[in-house]
Write a structure and sequence with these properties.
- The protein contains four helices and six strands.
- By secondary structure, the protein is of the alpha+beta class.
- The chain has two domains: 64 residues, no CATH class; 78 residues, no CATH class.
- Strands 1, 2, 3, 4, 5 and 6 form a six-stranded antiparallel β-sheet that branches.
- Helix 1 packs antiparallel against helix 2 and helix 2 packs antiparallel against helix 3.
- The radius of gyration is 16 Å and the shape is globular.
- About 14% of the residues have low confidence.
Amino acid sequence: MNKILLSIFLLCSIFTSSCATKGQTGAGAGAVGGALVGQAIGHNTEATLIGAAVGTMLGYMVGNEMDKYDREQLNHVYERGVSGQPTTWRNPDTGNTYDVRPQPAYSDPTSHRPCRQAEIIAIIDGKTERTYTTACRDDNGHWQLQNK
């Protein structure tokens, strides 16, 4: 277990070096967070590695491809988007496009906070990427992406 966490730490150190891109930094942070969540849930090596892989993917996408403009647009979809209806935007700086379909809000059974899931289809550098996210309101009423 300690060897795995050390390997993840070293990998993250490489990603977050001074020459790292936002995507590498996001992937590194996502890997660490995912590994910790995986270990906490599964208490074994396999769960830790799966958590690190999922965290890396989500962290890379959010860190590299979604800048402040995109995060504001995504927050708007979580806040006001019509369930099942796509909201689409094009980032004027990067040229990336996003199509987001939010699902109905629900109450998280553990935290009792309002949450929403959404499917995100992004076209980044001409490549289509699809991911599913969940966001829940924090204590200040802001939508925060969850590592689920």
